[in-house]
Write a structure and sequence with these properties.
By secondary structure, this protein is α+β, with helices and mostly antiparallel strands. The protein contains 13 helices and 10 strands. The longest helix is centred in the C-terminal third of the chain and has 21 residues.
Length: about 350
């Protein structure tokens, strides 16, 4: 429900005030509660009329006839698009985050785990980090070592900060000389490429040169066919602060919280949601509110996600998830700042 459009100033002021009051207190907001916080003095009757207009336009809802109003997903979207995205953390808060992250930068997984903890702590929601997958990392160096029983040990050094070993079984035998030549070819041709792109390029070249059939290229392609440079597994997923959700009044419904917790436990679903921000040209924070989430179990929640970058390349993602009644200003600026700082650490390695 992007693109809520412009609202007249009076409607905008009242909608923003309702959102802020509801976020702060968690109870429906009545006209009397707004009278003292609006930029211009308005009578309770005028406020009620404007609130009724906002209900009719889908920005507010009235849970009970005698109750005040609460924001809808569309109301939150308007608030986020117009008011919340320009907020910044206080310098003292940024320094605190820096200290927490600098305490765990080696190895890479320690930084990712700490980032999920800090996201949860600072936003009071669930913090997620999808660490870079092997496929998205950039090759620094590869070496193959022949093993008995038609097995090959692949040693892969990649950026950011990763040394991995993998034993693969192949159907045809290789000599150590052939493996050395294959590694030398990959290192000279593809250093600095993503591992996924290398694999695609090798098969492309093999197809283009099939008439001239190159034995070296064939050997390299064979090693890739047997997953010498990993498969399609996503990177490690770190989730912290799930228990914080249990204290929120929005999740007193046992069935609803059970569905949400099941979603947290299903890595594939979380990875799919977090990966959305890697599939769009926008490199900043992405916010999915309520029914903007494709997963049904997440449609009572807001997801705030930002990509992790190695240099200019998106290689992972992080974010927070919580109820739609969320302190958006703080959560958005927290996700943005931590993504920026983690990307700096990744790029400096």
């Amino acid at each position: 429900m992007r693109g809520s459009g412009n609202l007249p100033k009076r409607q905008r002021d009242i909608l923003v005030a309702v959102v802020r009051q509801f976020i702060a207190n968690g109870i429906p907001v009545g006209s009397k509660a707004l009278a003292g916080v609006l930029p211009e003095p308005l009578s309770p009757a005028t406020i009620r009329n404007v609130m009724a207009e906002l209900v009719a336009e889908g920005y507010l809802a009235q849970p009970h006839i005698s109750a005040g109003r609460i924001p809808t997903d569309r109301g939150y979207r308007f608030y986020v698009d117009w008011m919340a995205c320009g907020a910044r953390l206080a310098p003292a808060t940024e320094r605190y985050i820096d200290r927490k992250l600098s305490a765990a930068t080696d190895p890479l997984e320690a930084l990712m785990a700490q980032a999920s903890c800090v996201l949860s702590e600072m936003s009071h929601n669930v913090g997620w980090v999808l660490a870079p997958s092997v496929e998205e990392k950039l090759l620094e160096y590869i070496k193959f070592v022949i093993l008995p029983d038609r097995r090959v040990l692949a040693i892969v050094v990649s950026r950011p900060e990763r040394v991995e070993t993998k034993v693969i079984s192949v159907e045809e035998g290789f000599s150590q000389e052939e493996l050395d030549r294959a590694a030398e070819f990959i290192n000279s041709e593809f250093r600095g490429w993503s591992l996924r792109t290398i694999r695609l390029e090798v098969f492309k070249r093999l197809e283009e040169e099939k008439i001239l059939y190159d034995r070296l290229l064939h050997n390299v392609a064979t090693l890739f066919m047997w997953n010498a440079l990993a498969g399609d597994e996503p990177g490690p997923l770190f989730v912290d602060g799930t228990a914080r959700i249990l204290d929120r009044p929005e999740f007193e419904d046992v069935r609803r919280i059970k569905q949400l917790l099941q979603t947290f436990e299903e890595k594939a679903k979380l990875v799919k949601i977090l990966s959305l921000c890697l599939q769009t040209p926008d490199t900043g924070v992405r916010i999915l509110i309520g029914r903007e989430n494709s997963e049904k179990q997440m449609q009572q929640c807001t997801l705030i996600v930002a990509p992790l970058h190695y240099r200019e390349r998106a290689v992972g993602a992080l974010g927070v998830v919580g109820p739609t009644r969320m302190e958006y200003d703080r959560a958005i600026s927290t996700v943005d700042y931590i993504a920026h700082r983690c990307s700096q650490v990744l790029s400096s390695n």
